[in-house]
Design brief:
This protein has a single domain, classed as Vaccinia Virus protein VP39 (Rossmann fold), CATH 3.40.50. The protein is 39% helix and 16% strand. It has a seven-stranded mixed sheet with strand order 3-2-1-4-5-7-6, with helices on both faces. The mean pLDDT is 93.
């Protein structure tokens, strides 16, 4: 049952539709150093192309679009997520709960999120729905910066990473969220199956990958010419 009391107490709304409108473009748990690690990568490119895997309610995606709109003349952003199709997935295969404390699906609806971002005057973006590694593999053009913040199991993070590496050109960046070893909730992912941290450890040993650094929970890796 939808928790209208909590929704009204926290956001002053009474319906699920109103609450979703409040959440779109706002929810993000990235710290400023984590977001800066993405922005610093984007800033190296004159006309950057950005791909975010795991858009959720679009909080970080909105902030990246805002920064690009203020600092770059030419750019484009892709947001990849299962969106409402997450409700059809097996919860045991996911690292994010399907329902949040308001008892609404803990996912955004693609069309509604797109409209919300447009209402905030965000431009030059497209939201793509589907399994992340498949969507990335089928994209028509490579991106300069890939931010991986979707399913944090080792298996899915590695699938996403390999899809980005195969698609990207040398010089592109991969930024992994929740890739620390001991900052909650990352320690839970490490204990479960290694999670993003283990993927980054393995990738950093490849000749064509340079490990740039860890910024709070964001690990930054760069694809090289080797």
């Amino acid at each position: 049952m939808f928790n209208s009391h909590l929704a009204y107490k926290m956001f002053g709304v009474e319906t699920e539709e109103e609450l979703r409108s409040e959440l779109y473009g706002t929810r993000s748990d990235l710290t400023q150093p984590e977001r800066d690690s993405i922005i610093n990568c984007l800033n190296e490119f004159e006309s950057p192309k950005y791909c975010e895997v795991g858009v959720y309610f679009g909080g970080n995606f909105d902030k990246i679009l805002s920064w690009l709109g203020s600092n770059k003349e030419n750019y484009f952003c892709y947001g990849v997520d299962l969106f409402e199709d997450l409700s059809n997935e097996n919860q045991g295969d996911q690292t994010h709960d399907l329902f949040n404390k308001w008892n609404i699906l803990n996912v955004a609806y693609r069309e509604s999120l797109s409209s919300a971002l447009e209402s905030r005057e965000r431009k030059n973006f497209e939201l793509l729905k589907g399994n992340s590694h498949t969507v990335v593999s089928e994209m028509e053009e490579p991106c300069d910066v890939y931010f991986l913040d979707g399913n944090h199991t080792y298996a899915q993070t590695r699938l996403d990473a390999m899809a980005c590496i195969e698609k990207a050109n040398p010089g592109a960046y991969l930024v992994f969220h929740n890739a620390s070893k001991d900052i909650p909730p990352d320690d839970q992912y490490v204990a479960r199956d290694g999670g993003p941290w283990q993927v980054c450890e393995e990738l950093s040993k490849q000749n064509n990958i340079e490990y740039v650094g860890l910024f709070d929970r964001c690990a930054v890796l760069r694809i090289t010419n080797d």
